[in-house]
Amino acid sequence: MTTDEFRLRAASFGGVADVYERTRPGYPDDAVRWLTGDRPVRVLDLGAGTGKLTRSLVAAGHDVVAVDPSEPMLARLRTVLPGVDARAGSAERLPLDDATVDVVTAGQAYHWFEPATALPEIARVLRPGGRLGLVWNLRDDSVGWVDELWSMFGDHESRRVDDPQVVPPFGPIERQTFRHEQRLDRDGLLGLVASRSYVAVLAAPERDAVIARVGALYDRVASPDGVVLPYLTHCFRSTRD
Q1: Which one of 87, 170, 211, 217 is CB 3.0 to 4.6 Å from 166, fit for a cystine?
Q2: Is the residue at 25 inside a domain?
C-alpha cells in the first residue's frame, strides 16, 4: 500500500461511521478480560471508532477514555456511550497527561498507527507496570462460505496477524486467540463489507459491483435467520516496565 493510499483509507471511516456502528462486530468478554485484567482500572481505548471495544470495557467496569481522530466516528460513540470521556486525538499525539492510565487498548486499529511515534506516546501515558492490549477480529476460514467471502478481497483481508513489534519500555508480547461470532441479516452483511476502508474508497460503480457480489453470496448461503459469521479474535498484550 502506498503512503497516499494508506492516508486515504485511514481517513475513510468518517464517511461510513453509521454503517460501521450498525454492522461491525464487538469483542468476546473473555478476550477483553485477558487484555485488561480482572479488576476495574483506567483504560485508554485508542482508535476507538464508534466504540465497539469501548462498550465492552465499560461493561467490564473500567473507567474509559476513548480517543479517535475521526469526529464522525466519535459522534456515534458519544451517542451510544454518552457517559464516556471521548476525545479527538491520535496514537502519535495523545490528549492525556503522563502516567494517567493503567491499560491502553486498540481494537482493529493498531495497523493504522505509526509505531515509531505511537509506542513512546503510549508508554508516556501508561503508568509503570501498565499494559498495552491489541486485538483484531479476523476471518475464520475453516468455514467454506466465509473463506469465499473474504477471499473476494485478496490481501485486503488478512488470514493471520503477526506479533506486533514493540520496543522498550515494553516487555515481551504475549498472544492468545478466542472464538467469536456475529449474526447478520442481508443488510448487515452488505454493510459490514461496505464499512471496510478498501471498499469505502472505491468509486461508486466499483463499490456497487462489490456489494452485488456479496449480496449474491448471501442469497446462496443464508438461512431464514440470516448468517452466522465466525471470527478468530487475536489478542496481544505487553507490560510497560
Answers
A1: 170
A2: yes
Directed axis angle between helix 144-151 and helix 204-221, to 10°? Answer: 170
H-helix segments, the chain: 3-10, 17-23, 29-36, 52-59, 71-80, 115-125, 144-151, 186-194, 197-200, 204-221
pTM of this prediction? 0.92
Mean pLDDT of the residues in the chain: 93
> What would the pLDDT profile of 38-83 be if each residue is shown by its tens digit?
999 999 999 999 999 999 999 999 999 999 999 999 999 999 999 9
Report d(CA 34, CA 131) in Å as an integer: 11
Flag whether 225 is in a domain.
no
> Locate cell 456479496: which residue?
214
CA atoms in the 13 A half-sphere facing the CB of 108: 25
The residue assigned the cell 509503570 is 128
For residue 16, tell me if it sits in a domain.
Answer: yes
User: Side chain identity at 54, as an amino acid letter?
Assistant: T
Specify the CATH number for the domain of residue 118: 3.40.50.150
Which pLDDT tens digit goes with each residue over 22-33?
999 999 999 999
Is 224 inside any structural domain?
no
* Burial grade of 115 (CB within 10 A; 0-12, 13-18, 19 or more): middle
Give the total number of structural domains in the chain.
1
- Cell, residue 158: 488478512
Domain containing 17 equals 3-139+158-182+231-239
DSSP H or E run through 130: strand 126-139
Alpha-carbon torsion angle 4, 16, 105, 189, nearest 10: -110
